[in-house]
Design brief:
single chain; 503 residues; 62% helix
Length: 503
C-alpha cells in the first residue's frame, strides 16, 4: 500500500509539473513519471499499442482540420456562425451555445470557438443581455461538444477501447450527442436567470460611468460586419490572433490568474478586440479565399463519411487478411488523410502552410499529451490494478456516480478529454463498471471549468469588456462553475437513460 501511495504521489507530481509548464510539457512530464516509476519502483511501462492507435487518429484528423484552416475554411465557418448568432440577439443565451456545440461537434476541436467570443459579446450587449450568460455557457458547450464529435481525439480514445465490446462509433454517438445536447440546453435555460440584468450590474455601470466602455451602438451599426460575413470574410478576429488552446492545451502562462482576480485586474489575452461596436476582423485582413467554403464542405463531408462507415461496416474497405472490413480506427485514419489531400488539391493550398497553422500546432500538443500522460496513467493502473480494485471496486459498482466524480476532478488536472479518457476508462473497466455506464459517464471528462485556467475561459473573461464574466475572490466562484456543473450533471443523467436503452 505504501508503494502504491508513493507511486500515486509521483504521478500527481508529474501532472502538476506538466501543468505549470503547459503545452507539450504535460506529455513530457508524463514520460518523466513513467521513467521514475520504472527505475525507482520497478513498474513495467504499459503497452503503448492502444495509445499509438489514438495518436494516429488524432494526427489524421488534425491534418484534415489544419488543411481546412490553411484554406480559410475555419474563417468561412465563423462567418456562418456569426450570421446564426446575430439572427436573434434576444435569444443569444440559447443560440450561441448551440452554435458553439455544433461547430465543435463537426470540427472535432474547440479551436473554432475562439473567434466567436467577440461576436457573442457584442450581440449580447447590443440586445441588452448580460454577456456573462451566453459567453459562459457557450464556453462550456464548446468543450462538451468534443465528447460528441466523431472526429475528436477523445472519441478516438473511446473507439479504440470499446469498439470490440459492441460499443462502436454509432452507439457511442447515440448516447453522447443527445446527452451533451440536453446538458447544453438545460445549462442555457439556467443561465437566463444568472446574475443581474446588464443595465443593473454595478461593475458594468461603473465602467460606463468611468468612460471605460462606449455606449451601446445601434444594432444597425453592425450591418457592415454582417455583410462582410455573408461575403465569406473572417467575421471576427482570426484564429491566429486568439490565444491558442485546443482540446489538449494546458496554458502554462496563467499562473497569475488568482493574483489578477484578487486584485481586480483585467485578465489579458492576446488579440482581445471586444470593444463594443468595433470591427471584429483585423484591420488589413487578407481578402477571403474563394475556395474556403469548399475546404469546409470537404472536411464536413469527411466527418459524415466517418459516421456512415461506423453505421455500415460493409462500406469500409476490406482488411488485408480477408477477414472482413477494416477496423474503425484504420477507417478514420484513411478517410481523414484523404480529406486533407483533397483539400490541398481542390483548394490549391500550399502544403508548407499546413504545419504552421494553429490547429496543427495544437494537434502536436494533443499527441504528446495523450502519449505521455496516458502512458503514465496506464502504467500506474497496471501495476496497482488489484489494490485499486479491492479498495474501490465495491463503491464503484454500487455507486457508479462516484467514478463520474473521479473523471470530473481528474480532467481538471489533465486538461484533456482524450488523455482523461485514455488514462481513466481502463480503470473503470478494472473496477467492474459496465461499459454502458462508462459511456454514459463520459461527458464528465469535461471538468476544465472547475479551475478557470484553461485557455477557453481566460479568453472568454477577456472578451467580456462589461466585466460580467469574471473570476471571484475565491477563484472557484467564477462564471463558468454553474453552467459547467449543470451541463455535466444533466448530460450524465441523460446518458444513463440512453445507455440503458441501448445496452
Amino acid at each position: 500500500m505504501i508503494s502504491m501511495l508513493l507511486q500515486l504521489a509521483v504521478m500527481v507530481g508529474a501532472i502538476a509539473l506538466g501543468s505549470r509548464k503547459g503545452g507539450v510539457g504535460m506529455g513530457l512530464w508524463g514520460a518523466v513519471g513513467v521513467f521514475v516509476l520504472a527505475t525507482v519502483f520497478g513498474v513495467a511501462p504499459a503497452d503503448t499499442s492502444g495509445i499509438v492507435d489514438v495518436m494516429l487518429i488524432i494526427l489524421a484528423v488534425i491534418m484534415a482540420a489544419a488543411a481546412m484552416e490553411a484554406a480559410g475554411g475555419i474563417d468561412f465557418l465563423v462567418g456562418v456562425a456569426e450570421r446564426a448568432i446575430r439572427r436573434n440577439p434576444a435569444r443569444v443565451t440559447f443560440i450561441a451555445p448551440l452554435v458553439s456545440w455544433a461547430f465543435t461537434l463537426g470540427a472535432g476541436t474547440a479551436h473554432v470557438f475562439y473567434p466567436l467570443l467577440p461576436v457573442i459579446h457584442d450581440v449580447a450587449r447590443e440586445g441588452g443581455v448580460r454577456p456573462e450568460r451566453p459567453i459562459a455557457v457557450s464556453s462550456i458547450a464548446a468543450t462538451v461538444g468534443i465528447t460528441a464529435s466523431p472526429v475528436s481525439a477523445a472519441m478516438a480514445a473511446m473507439i479504440v477501447m470499446f469498439d470490440g465490446d459492441g460499443w462502436g462509433l454509432p452507439k457511442i454517438m447515440a448516447v453522447a450527442v443527445p446527452s451533451t445536447l440536453v446538458g447544453v440546453l438545460v445549462a442555457a435555460a439556467v443561465q437566463t436567470r444568472v446574475g443581474k440584468p446588464l443595465d443593473q450590474d454595478p461593475e458594468y455601470r461603473r465602467r460606463l460611468a468611468a468612460g471605460e466602455l462606449e455606449p451601446v451602438a445601434p444594432t444597425g451599426a453592425q450591418a457592415s460586419l454582417g455583410a462582410q460575413a455573408s461575403a465569406g470574410a473572417p467575421a471576427s478576429v482570426g484564429v491566429p490572433a486568439i490565444a491558442s488552446g485546443a482540446q489538449a492545451i494546458a496554458p502554462g502562462a496563467q499562473a497569475s490568474l488568482g493574483a489578477q482576480a484578487s486584485a481586480g485586474a483585467p485578465l489579458s489575452a492576446p488579440g482581445a478586440q471586444a470593444s463594443a461596436g468595433a470591427p471584429l476582423s483585423a484591420p488589413g485582413a487578407p481578402a477571403p479565399r474563394p475556395r474556403a467554403k469548399w475546404a469546409a464542405y470537404l472536411f464536413l463531408a469527411g466527418t459524415v463519411a466517418v459516421v456512415v462507415s461506423g453505421l455500415f461496416p460493409a462500406l469500409r474497405p476490406g482488411a488485408p487478411d480477408g477477414k472482413g472490413p477494416l477496423s474503425m480506427p484504420a477507417t478514420i485514419e484513411i478517410l481523414m488523410m484523404a480529406v486533407a489531400a483533397l483539400i490541398l488539391l481542390v483548394c490549391r493550398v500550399d502544403a508548407k502552410q499546413v504545419p504552421a497553422t494553429d490547429v496543427a500546432r495544437s494537434g502536436l500538443v494533443a499527441v504528446i499529451g495523450v502519449f505521455g500522460l496516458s502512458w503514465l496513467g496506464l502504467s500506474f493502473i497496471g501495476a496497482n490494478e488489484q489494490r485499486i480494485t479491492d479498495a474501490l471496486g465495491g463503491i464503484a459498482r454500487s455507486q457508479p456516480w462516484f467514478f463520474a466524480v473521479m473523471l470530473l476532478v481528474l480532467s481538471a488536472l489533465l486538461f484533456s478529454q482524450a488523455t482523461t479518457t485514455k488514462a481513466l476508462m481502463p480503470l473503470g473497466l478494472a473496477l467492474g463498471i459496465p461499459v454502458p455506464l462508462l459511456i454514459a459517464m463520459w461527458p464528465a471528462v469535461n471538468g476544465y471549468f472547475l479551475l478557470p485556467t484553461y485557455g477557453t475561459f481566460i479568453a472568454a473573461i477577456n472578451f467580456d469588456r462589461t466585466g460580467t464574466t469574471r473570476v471571484g475572490r475565491f477563484v472557484v466562484n467564477h462564471s463558468f462553475m454553474i453552467p459547467g456543473l449543470v451541463t455535466v450533471v444533466s448530460a450524465v443523467l441523460t446518458g444513463f437513460g440512453l445507455a440503458e436503452a441501448l445496452a
